[in-house]
Amino acid sequence: MTEEGALLSGKRRLERAALLSRARRAATGLRALGVGPGDSVALLMRNDFPFVEASQAATILGGYAVPVNWHWKPEEVAYLLGDCDAKVVVAHEDLLPLLSEAPAGIAVLTVRTPPELAEAYGLAPGGAAPSGEEWEDFLARHGEWDKAPEPTRESMIYTSGTTGRPKGVRRQPPTPEQVAGMGRNRAQLYGLVPGIRALLPGPLYHSAPNSFGLRSAHLAEILVLMPRFDPEEFLGLVERHRIDTTFVVPTMMVRLLQLPEAVRRRYDLSSLRHVTHAAAPCPPEVKRAIIEWWGPVLHEFYGATDLGAVTACTSAEWLERPGTVGRLVEGATMRILDEAGRDCGIGEPGEIFAGLACMPDFTYHKRDSDRRGVEWDGLISVGDVGYRDEEGYLFLCDRKRDMIISGGVNIYPAEIEAALIGVEGVLDCAVFGIPDAEFGEAICAAVRASPGLTEQGLRAALRGHLANFKIPRRFEFHESFPRDDSGKLLKRVLREPHWAGAGRRI
């Protein structure tokens, strides 16, 4: 990381030289709290400078920065902190109530919530009473780390699992060759090269924004952190800071296109050079409209936290082959297999197994068996189904597993079903995704229940256990569920009527 460059947030600016100094001070302090190679430092923060500082500090020590989704409820946060064996959690003061059920013995460092975050989220002045030491005091009383850094580890991102509990993707330290390969990979995918002017509109707790943001903090002339995505503010920041590189998800593009034409034309976006989107299927009409508006600057990739990004696609390639997510990137391997494990032919859909040479090997933290369960001859599947055309372009057409992608966030029905079945009066349930114009998919719950149980009652019962974004938007009450001769629930029968005529398979 060079010392030239800066991070911006609201009216605040942090020069990269100061960021490096603060990260080294944080590393000294975290080491004093017992953090060493392979240990976890949890980050319960919105987009803010200390998120980057603490991530860098954990990296210096050879530890894992573990972002925490602050939309979660205390029960969910407590599970992650216990599962990753966090030594320390760094948290914004307004998010401290989420630590109410945290395991004992974890050191807490409190970050004052800055004005732009308080304004964006409508937070009252002051927030919760600080817990543990304040971040600024913590940095002030420690000198800069002056020992050789430990082997670098990527952030340990928790991704929801089919067993109903999130699982941490824990990678080994990369070799020098892999570090160089990841640099080339992220330059192609995200446009991350020295001297860019970058904008981060998505949350740093999410896998792709985390990768984009932390890498940009190393390379960019400026990196602008958005406290919260707002479509018109996004356009204003692009114009004001002459942004050339950013990362968005389809829901953001939908909201940008919903702005009145006069508002959209008010802003000069000619500085944009490389806009990446991923994380969820993008409706073709949305992508085409963005390309018509911004020009051929839109890039897409296919990948996952577990996989890395294995295909890439430019605007020109997509316009020639609408719907493709691109061809294999450098060092990527892919096989598309049928149910018998045979390679599928051109145009024949099958389950996608892939790998990326520059990504260090991984396991799911404390869940090696889950890792083995998604592997085929060294390649990994996240349950997507697709096919390749005669020129090797990949098209996604289905999902083998039940995952819902809503607004770019992966949501696994098993977790919601486990909470639902625990509600008094619920006899059986099935959760699945249904079409949604803004978010791509919305959560629907089909329920068999005792008389008197209402949708309002179910929502109230779930709110204490699940993050709000996991609570179904729609409930359907059934007298019976379709099952095969073995008794297996035929969830697709419940789901298909919602997707009939949607113009895409799911």
Structure description:
It is a single chain. With 506 residues, the chain is α/β, with parallel strands linked by helices. It has 16 helices and 28 strands. Among the domains are: 13-153, Rossmann fold, CATH 3.40.50; 404-499, GMP Synthetase, Chain A, domain 3 (2-Layer Sandwich). Helix 1 crosses helix 2 (49-60) and helix 9 (250-257) packs across helix 11 (284-294). Strand 22 and strand 23 form a beta hairpin. A 13-stranded mixed beta sheet has the order 2-1-11-10-12-13-14-15-16-23-22-18-17, with helices on both faces. It has a 5-stranded parallel beta sheet with strand order 4-3-5-6-7, with helices on both faces. 30% of the residues lie in helices and 27% in strands.
Write a concise synopsis of the structure shown.
The protein has 506 residues and is of the alpha/beta class. The protein contains 16 helices and 28 strands.
- CATH architectural group of the domain at 13-153: 3-Layer(aba) Sandwich
Main beta-sheet strand count, sense and barrel state: 13 strands, mixed
Number of helices in the DSSP assignment: 16
Poorly predicted residue ranges: none
**Shape estimate:** globular
Radius of gyration equals: 23 Å
Give the N-terminus to C-terminus distance in angstroms.
42 Å
Helix content bin: 25-40%
User: Based on helices, strands and strand pairing, what is the structural class?
Assistant: alpha/beta
In CATH's first tier, which class of the domain at 13-153 applies?
Answer: Alpha Beta
The averaged pLDDT comes out at 90
Output the strand order for the largest sheet. 2-1-11-10-12-13-14-15-16-23-22-18-17
CATH topology of the domain at 13-153: Rossmann fold
**Beta-strand percentage range:** 25-35%
Count of distinct strands = 28
